[in-house]
Design a protein that fits this description.
single chain, alpha/beta
Length: 317
């Protein structure tokens, strides 16, 4: 199998050479005649010397592509750029902070090649601050398992190997990397999880905390109300719209009956307000369905235009 290794960086100048050296050393151990690797480093608009440090890697024994975003976009945008520029059918994704241990790469590749669509690491013994990172991660993972078909313990682990064509089947909305395993599980793909070592961060600062939970909640709303109905969102929201119209009609009919047979004035009941409320609600649901469908069509049409790179440097051996 051939693999494209994608690693995003954002203000990780102290970690660049460490990550690269660890990666190269471990690739040499697992490289075989039927395995080929390319490395793609994406600098997501770092404000330090990260890209300068990347340019010093011109002696890499493997094909290495350096890509730079002009401004900081997001980790998902960096991964999208790497995927867009990848040449191989299998993607290996790691973080650029060296907390993902490249020594685990061999066992992950072996398990992946036994057959699955995606394998994701499980940082069972995390080396992070409990209240700032581990606890938010536990809460977020519980919510994801609760509202999706995924049984993965650690959706936030960046260490993944995945078939490229499975990602092409997704609408890469928002921070798609965070719930990638859940999205694939919801689409019926075979997901495996394997316990991996987790390193303590040596340099740089973490970019995540409790704010991640709020983003996960937004992604879960998308996952359940849009992604599952990406080909029929008009019908999904339309069902609620039609139900609201029916309620509005039934209330209006009840008003007519009460006026004709019981001589009850409309203004003596809340029925007129309820009828108008459900009528407006029905219209809103219909418009939401149309808007959701238009968004999905636009996203699908723009999947090939997700390369945000500003500068590219290729070291080809």
């Amino acid at each position: 199998m051939n693999y494209s290794i994608i690693i995003p960086f954002y203000n990780e100048e102290e970690n660049v050479s460490l990550v690269n050296n660890e990666l190269i050393n471990n690739l040499k151990k697992i490289e075989k005649g039927d395995r080929k690797f390319e490395i793609i480093y994406v600098d997501d608009g770092s404000s330090d010397k990260t890209f300068d440090k990347l340019k010093e890697l011109n002696s890499n024994p493997y094909k290495t592509l350096l890509i730079r975003h002009r401004i900081n976009l997001s980790q998902s945008a960096a991964l999208n750029t790497g995927i867009h520029n990848s040449q191989h059918d299998n993607l290996i994704i790691l973080d650029g902070d060296l907390q993902d241990n490249p020594e685990e790469l061999e066992k992950m590749i072996i398990e992946y090649e036994r057959g699955c669509d995606m394998i994701i690491g499980w940082r069972k013994n995390r080396k992070d601050n409990f209240f700032m990172k581990t606890l938010p991660s536990l809460i977020a993972n519980y919510l994801v398992r609760l509202f999706s078909k995924s049984k993965v313990n650690d959706h936030g682990c960046a260490f993944k190997i995945v078939k490229k064509n499975t990602i092409a089947d997704l609408t890469n909305w928002g921070d798609f990397h965070r719930l990638l395993a859940a999205r694939l599980a919801n689409n019926g793909y075979n997901i495996k999880e394997i316990e991996v070592k987790h390193n303590k961060r040596l340099y740089g600062k973490s970019k995540y905390g409790f704010g991640r939970i709020l983003k996960v909640l937004v992604d879960l709303i998308y996952l359940n109300f849009l992604k599952n109905y990406k080909r029929q969102s008009v019908y999904f929201f339309g069902q609620f719209g039609i139900f609201s119209f029916i309620l509005a009609f039934m209330i209006f009919f009840a008003m007519i009956v009460m006026r004709l047979y019981y001589d009850t004035s409309f203004i003596d009941t809340p029925l007129p307000i309820l009828s108008v409320f459900f009528l407006i609600t029905g219209l809103l649901f219909i418009f939401m369905g149309i808007l959701a469908q238009l968004i999905i069509v636009q996203q699908n049409n723009s999947k090939k235009d997700n390369d945000n790179s500003d500068q590219k440097i290729l070291f080809d051996k």
